[in-house]
Every structure is written in C-alpha cells, then in structure tokens.
Amino acid sequence: MDIKIATEHYNPLLKRKEIFVTISHQSTGTPDRFGLRKQLAARYNSKLEATYITKMKTKTGTNETICKAHVYDSPEWASRVEPKFIKNRNLPAEERKVSAKAKKPVEKVEKAPPKAPKPVEVKKPAEGKK
Q1: Cα–Cα dist 55/86, whole Å
Q2: Nearest 5°: CA angle at 56, between 29 and 9?
Q3: For the chain, which has fewer Cβ within 10 Å, the N-terminal or C-terminal residue?
Q4: What is the DSSP letter of 28?
Q5: How high is the pLDDT of residue 115?
Q6: Where are the domains of the chain?
Q7: Cα-trace Rg, the chain
Q8: Are the CB atoms for 53 and 41 separated by under 8 Å?
Q9: At residue 8, does pLDDT exceed 90?
C-alpha cells in the first residue's frame, strides 16, 4: 500500500490540517479506516485521538482510493469539532460493534388520539321584521 499526500492545508480556525491522500493498493481491497488512521498519525507525529479519516472513495475497477483526513493540534479540539458518526467510523471494527449494541432502543411513546373537531353551529337566517 502506497500513500501519497495530494494536498495539505492548515485551517487555523479549526486548528487542524486538512489532508487529501491518494492510496494505491495493488491486488488488495480498499484499506480500512483504522489502519490508515494509524499510518497518518505516525506520519504526522500526532496522537491517534487527534487524527480522523472523514471520507474515502474508491472508483469502481481501480486500485486507488482518495481520502480526506483531519489531523488536529490536540485530541480535545478534535473531540469538540468532529461529529459522532465520524468518530464511530474511525474506531476498530470490534469497538464499532460494541458501541452499536450499547445503544438502547428508542421507546415508542403512544400519542393520545386526536380530539374530534367541535361541531359547527349553523345559524338560521333571521326572519324579516314587520
């Protein structure tokens, strides 16, 4: 698996590096996010908790994957900015299954039946005065 950095940009507002990576993986399938996350954290000398893969796209029939990654200055800042579903996607497969089982099913709340509309009173036209 060969990793090439396509573009790298520092976002000072969110305190992170936004990186586009091209991965060529000859004779193997698309790499998993967690393994790629480990390699990018090692390459950028950052903590694993501060590195997230946000997007991976492999075109059909090719051996190249284009990824978008965020490398934050600190894990605290990463936990405040990254959404939960991205954090969940970047977990190892075993932990992802455990967190999915830990979710409690949503209890259904019964709604009260709708109230019947009030009958409309029909007024008779007033009879003429004599």
Answers
A1: 9
A2: 135
A3: C
A4: S
A5: 77
A6: 2-81
A7: 28
A8: no
A9: yes
For residue 130, pLDDT over 60 is answered with: no
What region does 61 belong to: left with phi over 0, alpha with psi -120 to 50, or beta? left
β-pair partners for 130: none
Class of domain 2-81: alpha beta
Q: Which single residue is written with the structure tokens 């796209």?
A: 57
Q: What global pTM score does this model have? A: 0.71
DSSP for 55-95, please give it: EEEE-TT-SEEEEEEEEES-HHHHHHHS-HHHHHHTS-HHH
Q: Which residues of 26-50 are buried (b: 16+ CB within 10 A; e: fewer)?
A: eeeeebebbebbeebbeebebeeeb
Q: Quick one: DSSP state of residue 19?
A: E
What is the strand order of the sheet 2-11 is part of? 2-11, 16-24, 64-72, 51-58
Quote the CA–CA distance of 102 and 96 in Å, as a whole number: 10
The identity of residue 5, as a single letter, is I
Confidence bin at 80 (pLDDT 50/70/90): very high
Q: How far apart are CA 90 and CA 96, in angstroms?
A: 9
